[in-house]
Amino acid sequence: xxxxxxxxxxxxxxxIAPEDVAAIRAAGFALVIDNRPDGEIxxxxxxxxxxxxxxxAGLGFVANPVIGGxxxxxxVTAQREAIAAATxxxxxxxxxxxxxxxxxxxxxxxxxxxAELIETAARWGYNLEPFRPHIDAxxxx
Length: 141
Known about the structure:
By secondary structure, the protein is α/β, with parallel strands linked by helices.
């Protein structure tokens, strides 16, 4: 597991496993957001199993499955609300961290400049440039 800090309070990573949870807790995270649909992964990594392990470690857990190429308004709203309600740093995961970066940038539209959101994700190799018009549109609301 490689944790990639987009901000001091929001990081992304590829798929986590139950054995990663102690390190996530030790790193100071308060909330884990699962952005990966169960249909993409083996049963031992499904949302319900990871929720049990994460919550047993004393961390919050939010399931917000994001389908690549089909991010919904509900996904964006759920990510924004989870981040806003977090009592400390947030770790969001998906297959590579890319979807967690995209849904984060969309959820932060209007709260941070679009260029900053895109540049922040680019530092970790996530290309959010194709989402610029969508981020701008959300920021204009």
